[in-house]
Amino acid sequence: MANLLFETLGRTGLNAWRKCRKNTLAWVCVLMAITASGHPEYSIQVEEITTRIEQEPVNAHLYLHRADLHRQAHRFDLALADVATAARLKRDWPLVSLVRGEIQFDAGHPEDALKSVEQFLRSETNHAPALLLRAHCHRQLGLPELAVADYDAALKIFAQPNPDWFIERARLEAALGRFDKAIEGLEEGMNRLGVVPGLQLAAIELERQTGRYDASIKWRRAVRIHRRNGCSRQRCWSRPVA
Question: Which of 54, 57, 142, 213 has a CA-to-CA distance to 157 between 20 and 30 Å?
Fold first, then answer.
């Protein structure tokens, strides 16, 4: 879940950061946009940000930036050390808890990650990436009902959600015996994202699990029709008629 926060800032990202550093949500959005733009190798990134830290040793944002670089490289001890420094430099900063939670989750400690992300969500209740992280924690901890609730909340907020998140939620619903809800959730994904093969394959598999082979065949037929007609957008999608 993931890769939600930091990458190399660059001049454009740095200017945006200066404008919105006081706003936690805006800061996260800038970082997410920067993440999508690509980055040099880990060692080069760390060297660059370390140089900036030497120039601005009390800048908590830079320590969180480096912490996330360490997280992506699975150097979790170094990442948590930088988070601890950021927490000392900027007390009561909610973003520290979110970054710590991401590190803990990737390090294989979902229970600790859950505590951290819940601390963040106490101040940022409708933060979609945090809700998604909590969903992943609940899933790892064997709490499917809570995980589904968090997926529901997060997916309502994301403007362009990842299809995999709909599939993850559907599998949890199926594990709870709620196959109709699982199918409905996949249909929601197709209504929002268009014809996505992964979503349709998941729907076909769920129909097979319930013994509804005719429905599975109709899903496949619908996929072929939509592809033949060149439909990939939301307006082209409709559930296959039973």
Answer: 142
| 181's tokens | 């809800």
Cα–Cα nearest to 31, from 8, 1, 56: 8
* Phi, psi for 239 (deg, rounded to 5): -70, 140
> Would you list the domain boundaries of the chain?
10-159, 179-242
pLDDT tens digit sequence for 124-136: 999 999 999 999 9
List Cβ<8 Å contacts ≥24 apart for 29-34: 31/4, 31/5, 31/6, 31/7, 32/4, 32/5, 32/129, 34/6, 34/7, 34/8, 34/9, 34/10
Give the Cα separation of 85 and 208 in Å (integer): 52
Tokens 């670089």 sit at which residue? 69
Question: Cα-Cα-Cα-Cα dihedral of 41, 116, 168, 68, to 10°?
Answer: -10
First and final CA of the chain: distance in angstroms? 35
In CATH, 10-159 is 3.40.50.720: no
Sign, Cα dihedral of 233, 236, 238, 242: negative
Only one residue has tokens 């963040």, namely: 120
